[in-house]
C-alpha cells in the first residue's frame, strides 16, 4: 500500500541538529506524543550515518518487541500457505529472530554471508534514484521504526516489519537477490526521469507486489504482499494479468488500497527471463520505445 523510497515520511532538520518526522494527520500515531518522540529519535540515528559505518542501534521498547512477535507469528502461518518456495527457503536461510526486532546491522550480518546484501538506515524520504541505485552494490535502504501499537497489522508507510520480513527474507535467496541487483543496475543506467519511473514500476509489480504460479496454486513473492496481514489473504482475488514489461511499466496504481491489478510469473525462471532480462539490458532508448508503443 506504499512504494519504497517515495513514501517514507519526510523529515525536517531542526536548528539544534535534531530531526522531526512529519506524520500525516491520518497516521495512527499522529496524536501520540510518545510515539512521535520515538519516531524522531529513531530517525535521528540514520541522519548522519555513512555507508560502511556500523548502523546505530535503535533501543526498542518491550511493547515494540511484542508487536514484532505478534506479526511475525501470524505472518508465518500465512507464508506457509501463500508464499513461494524460494521465499520460504530464504526464511529458513536467514533465521530472523521471532520474539524481538532485529537491529539492521544484525540483519546485514545475517544476509551478507548468504547473498552479499547489507542494509542502510533511512531517516525518511530517500531519493528514488539513490534508493534503487544502491541495490546494484548490494545495499537496501530501510527504516528502523515499527508501526503504531494501536494497529499492529497495519502501517501506512514502510516500517521495519515490511523492510525486514518482507524484503530481507527474499534477499536471502540468491536468485531473488540477483534480481534486486539487476533493478539497481537499471536504475543507475537510465538517465531520464521517465525511464527511472518505468524501472520503478517494474519493481513495484514484481519485487513489491509480484505473484507466481507454483503448480496449481498462485503464490506471492512480493514483499508488499508478504508483509501485509490483510493483503496476503486477498491477492488471489485480484485481477491477475500475464507478466508483461510494457503493461507493468505503464500501469498506474493506487497506494492507498490493496493492489487490484497483479502480474503473474509462470515460474522463477520466467521472472528471471522477462524481468531480469529487461533490467539487465534496458536503457533510455529501449524504454522510450516501449512507452511510445504503449
Automatic annotation (TrEMBL):
Signal peptide: none annotated. It holds the Pfam family Biopterin_H. Its EC number is 1.14.16.1. Its cofactor is Fe(2+). Keywords: Iron, Metal-binding, Monooxygenase, Oxidoreductase. Residues 1-294 form the Biopterin-dependent aromatic amino acid hydroxylase family profile domain. GO terms for molecular function: phenylalanine 4-monooxygenase activity. It comes from the Bacteria. Belongs to the biopterin-dependent aromatic amino acid hydroxylase family. This is Phenylalanine 4-monooxygenase. It comes from Nonomuraea indica.
Amino acid at each position: 500500500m506504499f512504494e519504497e523510497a517515495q513514501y517514507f515520511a519526510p523529515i525536517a532538520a531542526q536548528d539544534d541538529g535534531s530531526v522531526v518526522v512529519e506524520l500525516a494527520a491520518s497516521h495512527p500515531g499522529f496524536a501520540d506524543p510518545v510515539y512521535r518522540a520515538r519516531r524522531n529519535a529513531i530517525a535521528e540515528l540514520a541522519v548522519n550515518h555513512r555507508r560502511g559505518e556500523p548502523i546505530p542501534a535503535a533501543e526498542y521498547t518491550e511493547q515494540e518487541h511484542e508487536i514484532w512477535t505478534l506479526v511475525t507469528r501470524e505472518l508465518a502461518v500465512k507464508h506457509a500457505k501463500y508464499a513461494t518456495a524460494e521465499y520460504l527457503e530464504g526464511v529458513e536461510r536467514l533465521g530472523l529472530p521471532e520474539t524481538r526486532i532485529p537491529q539492521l546491522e544484525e540483519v546485514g550480518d545475517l544476509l551478507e554471508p548468504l547473498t552479499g546484501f547489507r542494509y542502510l538506515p533511512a531517516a525518511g524520504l530517500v531519493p528514488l534514484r539513490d534508493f534503487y541505485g544502491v541495490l546494484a552494490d548490494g545495499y537496501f535502504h530501510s527504516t528502523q521504526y515499527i508501526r503504531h501499537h494501536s494497529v499492529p497489522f497495519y502501517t501506512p508507510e514502510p516500517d521495519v516489519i515490511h523492510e525486514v520480513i518482507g524484503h530481507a527474507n527474499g534477499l536471502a535467496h540468491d536468485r531473488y537477490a540477483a534480481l534486486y541487483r539487476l533493478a539497481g543496475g537499471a536504475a543507475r543506467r537510465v538517465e531520464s526521469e521517465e525511464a527511472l519511473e518505468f524501472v520503478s514500476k517494474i519493481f513495484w509489480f514484481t519485487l513489491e507486489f509480484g505473484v507466481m504460479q507454483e503448480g496449481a496454486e498462485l503464490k506471492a513473492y512480493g514483499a508488499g504482499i508478504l508483509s501485509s496481514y490483510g493483503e496476503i489473504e486477498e491477492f488471489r482475488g485480484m485481477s491477475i494479468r500475464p507478466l508483461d514489461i510494457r503493461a507493468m511499466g505503464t500501469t498506474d496504481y493506487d497506494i492507498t488500497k490493496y493492489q487490484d491489478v497483479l502480474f503473474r510469473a509462470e515460474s522463477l525462471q520466467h521472472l528471471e527471463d522477462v524481468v531480469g532480462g529487461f533490467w539487465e539490458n534496458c536503457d533510455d532508448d529501449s524504454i522510450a520505445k516501449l512507452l511510445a508503443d504503449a
